[in-house]
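Notebook entry, structure prediction.
Reason for the run: the old model in the group folder had no record of what sequence produced it. Starting over properly, with the input documented here first.
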Amino acid sequence: MEKITKMPHIKFKPTRKIDFDFDFSELDFNLAATESRINAKRYLKSNELNDGTILMFFEKAVVFAFDHLHQNEKIFIPEINPVTIFFSNAIMSLRLLIHYKEKLIQNSPRVKTFDGNVDPKDFGNFFQIATNIIVNLQATVESLANRLIPKDREF
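New structure, fully documented this time:
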């Protein structure tokens, strides 16, 4: 494949992030309910995945996450806001689209002279990336709208 420069993308943001202004290390975990401690120990020792939300605690924030079992090891993956994923996908593809558009225009036969060979790959490559961008931008708008619609809104 032709050499194409690295694609830019926007900064990913978590689905939900809760900032706090206290020192997390000062919390007394012995205050947790006995049932919660038992459930936490069972979860840590098993390969069972959590059906709910996992909270990842950082120095000054909590980020929502989910767990995943990879080669018999449980890992946490932060939830990323889908709006930023879809939009970043579209932005990353823009340079590629411009590249294939220029190639399509350069290689297309001219009407007056009809010289040159017609290569369907030129249009196929351009159309494939253009469609990808359109779908990702549409998903960006839909995802953003879904996040803004109140949960109690009836349709």
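Summary: Residues 82-148 form one domain.
The old model has been moved to the deprecated folder.
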